[in-house]
Amino acid sequence: MTTNGFRPLDEKSLMEYIKVTPSLSSRLGNQFDDLQIKEVGDGNLNFVYIVVGHSGSFVVKQLLNFVGMWSYAGSPSRLFFLTLIKCLSITVGLHLISIMMQRHVREDNTLKLEIAELKSMFCERAQALIHGDLHTGSVMVTRDSTQVIDPEFAFYGPMGYDIGAFLGNLILSFFSQGGHADHGNDRKAYKEWILRTIQDFWNLFHKKFTALWDENKDGSRRGFSPSNL
């Protein structure tokens, strides 16, 4: 990012970086007056900045070479002991039941067989190139377009994996809303919106997938071998 190597960006250094990077400055029409830069990441693994100017806007995401909260802990040894103390403070009385639960799981042959079958499906059914980590935080939406980001976990796997992961993320969000509710907002309307989104997402996916399947089922389209194997 600089001639001196990596450095974490802040609003000032990002402004300097934008000015000397033609692919970014051109999106702003090379106009930097009244430029708005806002950091919207969680400060943990990445910095995410929204940059808005009179002539355009974009998002800058910087992957850190360390965990963002690391400086809070100090040294690795201090982090280890602080984590250990915190763990012990919240697990008092749980040790025995944890052992019993682990034993129950380890002796459940039906469960282990199901896990093995799912693992086999995940590793061996290379049906399509999939995203691998698709959730609502991986999708950026405007009124006119939808972009999917963070493809670093992409691999060839079962084609239903991404759809299931995305729907699972919405379902988790639905059940978590009770913890965000307060006297001013019971979150019921938002939960209903999540359920409608799940239904709309699946119905639209099913419609488009089956249409593409019917269109290309004879195998004569681009990307398919014309020979009968």
TrEMBL record:
Tagged with keyword Membrane: yes
Keyword annotations of the record: ATP-binding, Kinase, Membrane, Nucleotide-binding, Transferase, Transmembrane, Transmembrane helix
Short name of one Pfam family: APH
Membrane-spanning parts: 79-97
Residues annotated as domain Aminoglycoside phosphotransferase: 120-169
Cited InterPro entries: Aminoglycoside_PTrfase, Kinase-like_dom_sf
Gene3D superfamilies documented for this protein: 3.90.1200.10, Phosphorylase Kinase, domain 1 (3.30.200.20)
Record GO terms (molecular function): ATP binding; kinase activity
Homology family: Belongs to the methylthioribose kinase family.
Official protein name in the record: Aminoglycoside phosphotransferase domain-containing protein
Organism: Nyssa sinensis
